[in-house]
Amino acid sequence: MPEQTMFTMGDIACAEGALHAGCRYFGGYPITPATEIAERMSQRMPEIGGSYVQYEDEIASITSVIGASWTGTKSMTATSGPGVSLMNESIGLAVMTETPLVLVNIMRGAPSTGQPTRGQQGDVMQAKWGSHGDYQIIALTPASVQEMFDQTVKAFNLAEKYRVPVFVLADETVGHMRERLVIPDKDDIEIVNRKKPTVDPSEYLPFKPDEDQIPPMAVFGSEYQFYATGLTHDERGYPTDAEDVQMQLITRLNHKILDHMDDIVEVEEFMLDDADIALIAYGTPSRSGRKAIREVREEGIKAGMLRLKTVWPFPEDIVANLASEVEHIIVAEQNMGQIYHMVRGPAAPTPIHLMQKPTGMPQLPSEIIAKIEEIDSI
Question: Where do the domains of the chain lie?
Answer without folding.
Answer: 4-188, 268-376
